[in-house]
Structures are given as structure tokens and as C-alpha cells.
Specification:
homodimer; alpha/beta; 37% helix
Amino acid sequence: MEIHILRLGHRLPRDERISTHVALVARAFGAGKITYCGQHDSGLEDSISRICARWGGDFAIEYSSSYKKVISQYKKHGYSLVHLTMYGLPVQDVLSKLKLEEKILLIVGSEAVPGDVYESSNYNVSITNQPHSEVAALAITLDRICSGAELEGIDFGGKIRIKPSAKGKEFV
Amino acid sequence: MEIHILRLGHRLPRDERISTHVALVARAFGAGKITYCGQHDSGLEDSISRICARWGGDFAIEYSSSYKKVISQYKKHGYSLVHLTMYGLPVQDVLSKLKLEEKILLIVGSEAVPGDVYESSNYNVSITNQPHSEVAALAITLDRICSGAELEGIDFGGKIRIKPSAKGKEFV
């Protein structure tokens, strides 16, 4: 399955680190690309590119000034749109359907998500109906869609690789 | 199972939002309390307390100027210490042991975690060996330890409750 991410409404400096965490989670859990909207942020792009150069993988980051354009492009290319929101249907109830999709655009908002995102999405999906974090929602969703496969270890082929260790820090 | 969280090295303004997300994930996924170290932050405490007042639950937040003291207190009270780190043993390999514990202190770091935290911990546990996010690591760990029970809905008894919806925002 091909999974891309759309991060809405990136604001500087407020979302610097949250958007970085969103992008890193996307990469670590097997997504191929993130497009972010809101304010352009070359610092965000640089830090993700640096991580990819050291840790490997083909993850891409791209900016767009229009989420509407991104959404319509992905629709045109046959992606199913899955918007993560605390107001949506429980992930455990729609999971079996999501697993049948071949291409998914996972949409994660920041504070105020425009109403047309709810309307355009094929699925509005909640990870609990309590307020928490788009970083956590994205991680849980990717983990569940991929049946935890990424936890077993995607080979990113990076220059740096960690050797799991009971105490301390070890590298391969 | 009783699960508390220790958040290390909170820095202002850098960690404001990440620590808020860590605390909200802890609450939404069933932990009872978070203690944070580093810089004292009444804004963090206020925002978590406000969420609890509106959304319910008994989640507590507390500051300590000494993580060593927190760790030794929890050890004394019989908690098993589980440090989440990308260098640790894969969560899927230690999960069956973690599920047998009655009381767990989950430790999440910020950038540089002191060596004695690795040493003091009963388990150093990784959620993939790739760099991503302590917010995501905490969410996945809580989700797995509790076998996804929190996704099925803890009753927080809050003033506000969401009614899951395919489109838009609905409240009970």
C-alpha cells in the first residue's frame, strides 16, 4: 500500500517541532511522502532531508501553498482520503476498509481544519475521541493499517543503524 | 495496570507543545499521572488541568526538580521502570513481559537522556530504531500494553463528549 501524508496549516514558529515529529513518524512508519501547507518552512525541509541522508529511505517532503490543489491532485490519482480527526469514526471500526485501499492520503490538521476537508475526505477517522496529538494519531493509524509491520523493521539502508540494546546505545 | 509517566528535561519554550502532547497522549491512552522535570512550566500545568476539567478523568500533572528523586520514589513503590528510547529492545519483543507488570513508570526523554536513566530502567524499549517522536513512542506503547483497550473508549465522564461522526463535528 502507498501512503502519503498531507499536513495542514503549518504555522511558524508554533508548529515547527510538531510538524517535524509528524514528518518523522510518517517516515519511520513507512509513508513515502509528506506535503505540508500553511507557512513555508525551509528549516523543516532541511531537518527532514538531513535525517533521510543519515538514516536512509526514500521519504520526500514538499510544500504546497494550496491544500485544495493537493487534495484534488491526489483524488485525481485515485488516492483514498483519510482525515484524522477526534470527531471522526473510530479507527478500529473502519480499519478493515482502510486495509483494502491501495493508495491513501492521510490528512492531519493543526488547530482549525476547514469544513471542506471533512467533506472531501472518504473517511474521517478518530483515534479515541479525546483531545491528544496529531503525532500520536498518525503513528497509531500507520501502525494499525500496516498491522505493525513497520515495528518489525523496514530496511531504510541508512548510514546509521542502531543495534537494539538492553542498556545504552549501540550501532551496527 | 497502573501506568504513570515521567517526562525528562522539559525546556521552555522549546518543549512547550511536545510536552503538552506527551501529557495529553498519556491521559487519552489511560495513564494516571505525569511528572515532568526540567524547567517548571505553569502554562503546561494549566493547559492540562483545563483539558481535564472539560473532558473529564482523574489525570494528574506534577513537577519535580529532580528526576533521580522521582525514579527512586517510584522504585521504592514497586513500579517497573520502562524507558522509551530508539536504542532499546523492540517493544514487540518485550511486550509480553510488560503486560505482566502491575505498576509501570514509562520514562520519555527529550534530547539528551542521562546515562543513569538507561541504567536505572528495568527495560529500555524502542518503537522502531528510527528517529521519530516521543509522542508517537508513548502512544504506541500505551496502545500495545493495554491491547488497544483505550481505543475502544475509556469513560472519562467529561462535560464534553464527542459523538463519532462520518462527516463534521457532533457532540453528545
